[in-house]
Amino acid sequence: MSLWTPLHAQIHRTIRARHLFERHQNLLVAVSGGQDSLCLIKLLLDLQPKWGWNLAIAHCDHRWRFDSPANADHVQNLAQTWNLPFYLETAINLVNSEATARNWRYQVLTNIAQTYNYQYIITGHTASDRAETLLYNLMRGTGADGLQALTWQRPLTDNITLVRPLLEVTRHQTEQFCQDFNLPIWEDSTNQNLQYARNRIRNELLPYLKQNFNPQVESHLAQTAELLQAEVEYLEQTARQLRLEASAKGEKGDLQLNRHLLKKQPLALQRRVMRQVLQEILPDAPNFEHIEKITALITAPNRSQTDPFPGGAIAQVQGEWICIIKK
Predict the structure, then answer these.
(1) Whether the predicted pLDDT of 57 surpasses 90
(2) Are strands 54-61 and 26-30 parallel, antiparallel or unpaired?
């Protein structure tokens, strides 16, 4: 098998064209032992001579499976084979949900990166993951932001960035790559557990859509996420600017929003401004109803007000202003 495959060329081009990371950077690669992360680390190892990176492997053991210590040993052996630094984090408290597990992973990876001076944390998310995330969020109800949730880059701290170089590569391609290079994939039994909604999307829904609607469904959904990402970025930036222009502080230090300015703007921007405001004052992410009831105040009669939001704050119309009154 030649060392330089079309996939090597594609990832090399992607990293360069998207400025995912520069030469001679310290990259911490999250490796579970599954096909996507093995494909990722092998590609980066093979590209390393061209880029001069310092690579290291991090593995997170959730202790969800009886074989997780063996899984961790397997990844550590690979790191030794490739002569790479290896960092292992084992969960002390068992987490019971995918979301909590994901937050824990990003937290411990960030801690490792900060301690050992890695500027980038690299994960093996693929176009298939992007398609699954889009479908998962679509079915739960979401705006464009949820549909494009898996992005190429995301800052985790001021000097550490999360990067996903495989977002245009499908899971079928990573599997083929691992087979071509005889990479020892560790099969994660929890991926087959249909209790998890994501696994049902992966193992039941996407194969059904491929067979009955569109064989290229994964790539096409991933492309939809890509288009939405650029549009969301633009809207968020424009809304941030509008929010700055429309915001003022009231006598008691409460936030006030200028209705006259907001009235002239399209509904999409009005909603985004309100969402940004609510994100800062609510304990959890605002939902559709929260955003709609505060957006309605832009054109509501004087003295109109919302019922309390979670946490107790209310929004009230006072002449030309919407005042956010915290409890």
Answers:
(1) yes
(2) parallel
Q: Helix (H, G, I), strand (E, B), or coil: what is residue 66?
A: coil
Asked if residue 119 lies in contact with residue 21, where contact means CB atoms within 8 angstroms, the answer is yes
DSSP 299: S
What's the whole-number mean pLDDT along residues 53-63? 93
* pLDDT tens string 64-78: 778 888 999 999 999
- Placement of tokens 């202003």 in the chain: 321
Distance between CA atoms of residues 247 and 256, nearest Å: 6
pTM, whole model, 2 decimals? 0.88
* Single-letter residue type at 209: L
**Tens-place pLDDT, residues 195-252:** 888 899 999 999 999 999 999 999 999 999 999 999 999 999 999 999 999 999 987 8
Number of H helices and E strands in the chain, helices first, is 13, 10
| HSE-CB for 45 with a 13 A CA cutoff | 18
Give the helix ranges, DSSP H, for the chain.
Answer: 6-17, 35-51, 68-81, 98-116, 127-140, 144-147, 171-180, 197-200, 206-212, 217-246, 259-263, 267-281, 288-295
**Closest of 152, 146, 127 to residue 202, by C-alpha:** 127
Q: Considering only CA atoms, which of 27, 125, 32 is closest in space to residue 75?
A: 32
- Angstrom distance (rounded) from CA 164 to CA 152: 5
Closest Cα partner for 80 from 88, 68, 92?
88
Q: What is the pLDDT of residue 66?
A: 80
Q: Which one-letter DSSP state was computed for residue 306?
A: P
Q: Residue 177 class from Cβ within 10 Å (0-12 exposed, 13-18 middle, 19+ buried)?
A: buried
Q: Judge whether residue 107 has pLDDT over 90.
A: yes
Structure tokens at 53: 């990176």
Residue by residue, DSSP assigns 292-325 as: HHHHGGGSSPTT-BPPPPTTS-EEEEETTEEEEE
For the chain, how many residues are written?
327
- What confidence tens digit (pLDDT) does each residue in 109-140 have? 999 999 999 999 999 999 999 999 999 999 98
How far apart CA 203 and CA 157 sit, in angstroms, is 34
